[in-house]
Amino acid sequence: MAQVRTLCLLAAALVPPLAAPTGRLAAQHLGAHTDGEDARTDAMFATPYRFGVVPQDNLFATTPGLEQRAHPQRFVFNVLLPFTFNSNPEELNTAFGGGTNTAQFSPLAGASFSSQLFDLPFRLTAGVQAEIERFTQAPTVDFDKLRVSGRLQYVDAANDQGYSPYIAYAPRWDFAPFYQTWLETRQDLNFGVNKTFNYDGNFRRVAFSGNTLAETVWSFGVTTFIQRRFLNPEPSSWAFFFIPSATYVISDNWNVSLGLDFMNRRFDSIQGGISEQDFFLQPILTLEYVLPSAWFGSERTASLVGRPALDFQVAYERNWSNVPAFDFSTWYAGAALKMGWRF
Predict the structure, then answer these.
(1) Paired residues of 321 in beta bridges
(2) Which of 119, 151, 236, 237 is spaced 20 to 30 A from 277 at the CA atom?
(3) CB-facing half-sphere around the CA of 144: CA atoms within 13 A
């Protein structure tokens, strides 16, 4: 199967870009492209943004409230409008041309709901997101995606810095632009755990409690999980993730965060072929400016317009594979407008 993937990629590099890729080739490309994209999106939602208007389903342990109980129940609607420079949207090996420098526009809208599971120490989070990917200089890799998710997580009512194991299920459907033609379906089943360490402005450990956000200036965390991905078209795969992260609250309006997305993915062998194995590493730096409430006249008006924030982000992807055609590197740099409403 790895040889088939390589031949498809070579064919794509030689064929003029007349239309968006379809069928098996598109599905194979999307699997590599979007894991890193998902991490960069999660990094923007994981900044120490203290208004409780971000989804409680995230790769980064330092996401505000991720290890806290959902009392009261929380319904959140989010909009993210990122505009990014992308050095290699096709994620090609440099031996095949190294990709195309392009601008990328990836607007996203999503809704999520979090609630405690009866009187048990478990929080249930369900969500849905729709996102489109557009590349000004590489329209052949434009696509749209629709994702739903469910996450059951253990939370300690007296300690939001404790170990917080979880299980999550997230199916996603990918389409050619404007949701016209189906390209791929993936179903991710994750078994993981979060852990955070929070410190105040004098770098003293914040005392354990159910909500330490107000006292926390520095936060360090780690997420690790095992994933089984069921993919159509095949091949499906197993993956291991290790994701450390850190955040620093500079002031009421400025904060900075750093995340490191490390993944090892092994694809299933098909009909006795080579089993492709990839190692993926992506550092992500995000600087956020939360627009002051005074700009909108009052706290209430700021809430009505979605507590806007500007996120500036730089990231670098590096993928190593036992199939040489799938070795690639990509730079990203851009900014995004982030808004959220809690009901």
Answers:
(1) 278
(2) 151
(3) 12
Report the pLDDT value the prediction gives residue 289, as an integer from 0 to 100. 98
Give the pTM. Answer: 0.89
- Dump pLDDT digits (tens) for 279-306: 999 999 999 999 999 999 999 999 999 9
The residues, any chain, with a CB within 8 Å of residue 343's CB and separated by 6 or more, are: 75, 76, 77
CA angle at 126 for the pair 163 and 39, rounded to the nearest 5°: 65
Whether omega for the bond prior to residue 55 falls within 30 degrees of 0, making it cis, is no
CATH code of the domain covering residue 55: 2.40.160.40
Burial of 207 (0-12, 13-18, 19+ CB in 10 A): exposed
Q: Is the dihedral of CA 160, 249, 339, 135 positive or negative?
A: negative
The number of folded domains in the chain is 1
* pLDDT above 80 for 3: no
Phi-psi region of 2 (alpha: psi -120 to 50; beta: other; left: phi over 0): alpha
Torsion (CA) 99, 261, 36, 132 in degrees, nearest 10: -140
Q: Which residues form the domain of 216?
A: 2-342
